[in-house]
Amino acid sequence: SVGFGGDVGLHPDSRWNNPEPEVVVVASSAGSIVGATLGNDVNLRDVEGRSSLLLGQAKDNNASAAIGPFIRLFDASFTLDDVCCLRVKLRIAGEDGFALEGTSDMAKISRSPGQLVAAALGRHHQYPDGLALFLGTMCVPAVDRATPGCGFTHVVGDYVSISAAGLGNLVNRVRLCTECPPWTYGVRALMGDLA
């Protein structure tokens, strides 16, 4: 994942892809939801749609998701109840002049954030440091972009903006994952820096 302002990456093999504007909840290792942020879990529809066996190719690439612009921890002024009522807004602006807008209402998701976290974390699977969990989207761009009847797909250079009240605005530019910075900072480097 990349943060605010980073380039988000498409696999070069994908010809049909779109953003997935989502709320992301942050849960402790005990499964308590402590905050929220925004995310873009870029969807490679042609790769994922062929076979669930290709999910690794679709999701595990340089910059294949974005998260941010910050994590808002819950307090009296912003709670999980507020998250459950959010309207997530999407705006795509292409260098070719293409523009698209859409929304996704959290009130319409089929399972609550608590149910989704319980399905991901429990006696069956642990996250010792907690986790950030993308909750899903109801916003699938269906507007034709280039070829009539073929729907939407990203073009390199698109700017994707995802926003929601209380969580700010996550903005990223679309690139190929092979052109995005490689992931070089791992646990070994973290431990070295901490030492």
The helix-and-strand class reads alpha+beta
Q: Return the average pLDDT rounded to an integer.
A: 92
- Biggest sheet descriptor: 5 strands, mixed
Count of DSSP-assigned helices? 5
SSE pattern, N- to C-terminal: EEEEEHHEHEEHEEEH
User: Reading side by side through the largest sheet, how are the strands ordered?
Assistant: 1-11-10-7-8
Q: What is the helical fraction, as a range of percent? A: 10-25%
Strand content: 25-35%
Q: Measured on Cα atoms, how large is the radius of gyration? A: 17 Å
**What is the overall shape?**
globular
Care to count the β-strands? 11
Low-confidence stretches: none
Distance between the termini: 25 Å
Which descriptors apply to this entry?
five-stranded mixed β-sheet; 16% helix; 195 residues; alpha+beta; four-stranded antiparallel β-sheet; single chain; 5 helices
Describe the structure.
It is built from five helices and eleven strands. The strands form three sheets. Strands 1-11-10-7-8 form a five-stranded mixed β-sheet, with no helix packed on it. Strand 10 and strand 11 form a beta hairpin. The protein has 195 residues and is of the alpha+beta class. It is globular, with a radius of gyration of 17 Å.
Would you summarize the structure shown here?
This protein is an alpha+beta fold and 195 residues long. The chain has helices at 45-50, 55-59, 80-83, 113-120, 187-194, and strands spanning 7-10, 17-18, 21-27, 33-40, 43-44, 66-73, 87-93, 99-105, 131-134, 159-164, 168-176.
